[in-house]
């Protein structure tokens, strides 16, 4: 990557990381709720800006849209679980449409079965943890996103792993609603697993798309 490009675009990743680290540090302080909501939203919001500046084309625009909807979900979920869930549901649909445009030409049998297992298991575990059918419906989109990421040609160790961390974060979040008490894990891990997952996905997708353009 040219040095000039690093100077121009690394600040968005740096700002995203600063916001992600600042959120858990500041949430137990006297800082107001609106400021914390802004910090939370900006963490993935800056990843969307990074992706928008480092990619081109309508296909990449779907990925930027997915990140932007996730950032909107981070904001909306602080006001309403339903509104936040709707934004993330839309984000997963956009991500699925994006990944389907970059399917791996000849995925292995193991990859196919693993992706199918994700699609089936994710909504079932969402329901088992939350006890709510609406969460299971959301889990279909979440599982579909993870399945599409694993069947795509983007690197498993970044984009595939990022998708799994996103799933794990939601599972921990949903465990607060149902009969399974996983405390204190949700309080400790929901945000780190979610953000690291999004960071891996964003950087993995962007760097791969830029290699395609060379």
The total count of strands amounts to: 0
The overall pLDDT average reads 92
Provide the low-confidence segments as ranges.
none
Per DSSP, the total helix count is 8
Rg value: 17 Å
* Main pleated-sheet profile: none
Taken as a percent bin, the fraction of beta residues is under 5%
Structural class: mainly alpha
Fold topology:
Elements: H1 3-26, H2 33-54, H3 58-76, H4 81-100, H5 109-130, H6 133-151, H7 156-174, H8 185-212
Helix pairs in contact: 1-2, 2-3, 2-8, 3-4, 4-6, 5-6, 5-7, 6-7, 7-8
Question: Your description of this structure?
Answer:
There is one protein chain. With 214 residues, the protein is an all-alpha fold. Helices cover 81% and strands 0% of the residues. It has helices at residues 3-26, 33-54, 58-76, 81-100, 109-130, 133-151, 156-174, 185-212. Helix 5 (109-130) runs antiparallel to helix 6 and helix 5 packs parallel to helix 7 (156-174). The protein is globular. The model has no long low-confidence stretch (mean pLDDT 92).
Quick summary of this structure?
With 214 residues, the protein is mostly helical. It is built from eight helices and no strands.
List keywords for this structure.
214 residues; mainly alpha; 8 helices
């Amino acid at each position: 990557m040219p040095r000039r490009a690093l100077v121009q675009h690394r600040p968005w990743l740096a700002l995203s990381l600063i916001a992600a680290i600042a959120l858990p540090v500041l949430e137990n302080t006297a800082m107001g709720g609106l400021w914390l909501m802004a910090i939370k939203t900006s963490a993935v919001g800056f990843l969307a800006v990074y992706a928008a500046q480092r990619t081109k084309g309508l296909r990449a625009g779907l990925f930027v849209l997915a990140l932007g909807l996730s950032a909107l979900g981070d904001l909306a979920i602080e006001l309403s679980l339903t509104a936040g869930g709707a934004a993330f549901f839309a984000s997963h649909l956009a991500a699925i449409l994006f990944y389907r445009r970059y399917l791996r030409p000849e995925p292995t049998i193991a990859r196919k079965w693993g992706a199918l297992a994700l699609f089936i298991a994710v909504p079932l575990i969402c329901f088992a943890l939350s006890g709510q059918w609406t969460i299971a419906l959301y889990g279909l989109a979440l599982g579909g996103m993870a399945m599409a990421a694993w069947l795509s040609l983007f690197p498993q160790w970044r984009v595939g792993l990022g998708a799994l961390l996103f799933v794990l974060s939601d599972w921990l979040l949903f465990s607060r609603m149902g009969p399974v008490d996983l405390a204190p894990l949700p309080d400790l891990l929901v945000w780190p697993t979610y953000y690291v997952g999004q960071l891996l996905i964003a950087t993995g997708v962007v760097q791969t798309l830029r290699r395609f353009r060379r």
